[in-house]
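[AMINO ACID CHAIN]
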Amino acid sequence: MEPDKGWTRDSLFDGRLILCQPREGYRFSIDAVLLAGLTSAQPQERVLDLGTGCGVVLLILAVQGKGCAWEGVEVQSDLAELAKANAELNGLKGKVVIHPMDVRHVPTAFPGGTFDLVVSNPPYRRARSGRVNPNRQKAVARHEVLGKLDDFCRGASHALRDGGRLAIIYPAARLDDLVAAVVRHGFRPKKLTMIHSCEGEPARLVHMECRKGGGPEVLVTPPFYIYDSKGGYTEQMERLYRWPPQEETGLNPLEKKERVYGLGTQG
């Protein structure tokens, strides 16, 4: 797919990953970088992305070898087709599979217990809260128009094997809703990272990994800061953009072998 007035062609990982996305519609944000970079995955794990958009998170995980099979669910047919095109563009046709379907249909469309890891950056604004973007793609991606948090957690619980993990990026202001939802659907939070725009400001986002059927105790990692005092990226954030992937240290003393991967410069 060549760039034109309706699309842009962006390069990540210094050109190792190419992504086409709408010029005016929903475009992936730093949330995708954080979700892909802070989520751990083993090479033998099967991964499902709920609300995959143009496929950015799923494709990042795939090119980094985080998992062995990758599938995505996207309710908006135009974005689902774009995700398929992006997979093919990067030589991942057949390895990355996109399902154009509603996340609410996951419990009837997939066999139970198929996946080891589910990732998601679900819509975070309630359907009737705040200003709804007039752009349909953006409205569906940001507001709970075609699926609420419970629908994403229900789908994840069905798709995951016992002991499988759910990784989510969500607004810190709705952390109580997130914890309540995952517990309702059989998960226990296991790792929590509070994400701040900069030091001294309240957390803006959370990255939470949950385990299906897990026990008590949550590892709360040191805070993650996106910007430094001069307005540039912190070392933590820069690390997510570097290539080749570098060993992370200090974030998780219980998972010393965990690697945090990131993006190259966007073109």
Q: What stands out?
A: The longest strand covers residues 160-171. The CA atoms of residues 181 and 249 lie 31 Å apart.
